[in-house]
Amino acid sequence: MLLSLAIWVPIAAGLLVLACGDDRKAPLQRTLALVGALGGFLVTLPLWAGFAAHSAGMQFVERLNWIPRFNISYHLGVDGISMLFILLNSFITPLVVIAGWTVIEKRVGQYLGAFLIMSGLLNGVFSALDGMLFYVFFEATLIPMFIIIGVWGGANRVYAAVKFFLYTFFGSVLMLVSLLYLYNKSGGSFEIQDWWRLPLALDVQHWLFFGLLFAFAVKVPMWPVHTWLPDAHVEAPTGGSVVLAAIMLKLGAYGFVRFTLPILPDASRDLAWLMIALSLVAVVYIGLVALVQTDMKKLIAYSSISHMGFVTLGFFIFNSYGVEGALIQMISHGFVSAAMFFCVGVMYDRMHSRNIADYGGVVNTMPKFAALMMLFAMANCGLPATSGFVGEFMVIMGAMRADFWLAFAAATTLIFGAAYTLWMYKRVIFGAVANDRVASLQDLNSRETLVLGALAIAVLCMGIYPAPFTDVMHASVNELLRHVALPKF
After folding, report:
1. Of 50, 56, 74, nearest to 64 (Cα)?
2. Fewer CB within 10 Å, N- or C-terminus of the chain?
3. pLDDT at residue 489 tops 50
């Protein structure tokens, strides 16, 4: 019942907000949205409290017949891998609602309703144990994000929204073909756990691997199918960028863990070299691309691609340090990328510019903001005692077990990350006040302090004491690795 509540409470709240009418009822819409978002977060806390960390199996399982003719069921459950993403998503949603409290002035109900509905759909992706149910939730998340970018985005919002939709939808079509093959091969079952036990020949696994790869690689996004992300981030409103980076990018990486590795273990091992190569290109090349950006949002977008390259690298080195480190990196990136985009949003709301050259000396007029942004910049660099360090350190340790030069190449992200993040921070925050517009800036208000403060606490807690996160996933990761190590043909 808890998983259903995590899915349907925010969706119901979103529909209620939409039903409230036009902007004349904006105060009521904002209040209902906040209550719905907080309610969606509160119903996920018992998942954490009641989760048995020593167990590798699915917990909080729910199952109802949905479409009996095709053996499709409403089947939900979480393990140590998926549970953390539901908590992350439900934590970010209230912050997005609070951050857009006064910033969004037109179509307020539609804006907040879209985020609430998307929050419930994302929880559905992370908890679905039926392949068709997963696909429905996976595809449905495109609709609210498409609307958010297309309606509340920047000048080129329609182009960015269509590009985002076409890229992600095309990959998903190939995934659907792969899921239907598995359905027929398993004798008419859409149960994901049944697919884990299928004895598939290696050549079949290769075909399915690439079918799933296109869908998940676009979502991550991996090089070279990453070009939709900078456009989407630049044009999206702040809340859209936050959810896109913090949650939606995790869908592709989650797909590798839930589908590719356990269903296609032999192909995963056989093609690991390809995944590692693509991951290192993202880490190194995209890091260099980030160095030359002049738009803050675009720089952070490329930073996200580079950091997610670390995630896919960790998955395909097949040891517990690598996989757990990749999962920790996903959670940390959810906190840090959300915070960085919120910071850019704070400045954009005041200056209506994202260009680094338009800023300088912000610390003189916004000292509280500068201090918090420094913390998030350091976390983005992977500074010890921040969440950004934990996942990257574990992946590098895992890569070291596999090959020294692999670890060496992966570690370059720490250098590039520090270079582009500190370069941006130096030019925006430090120095003399650049112009009259910067001189007139007001420091954080209470609403902005609440949002950035909550993320700062999350970043520090995870960086100083990551054990609660790693302990939850340890048993599930070990079971996954045991499964991947067994030949299936």
Report:
1. 74
2. N
3. no
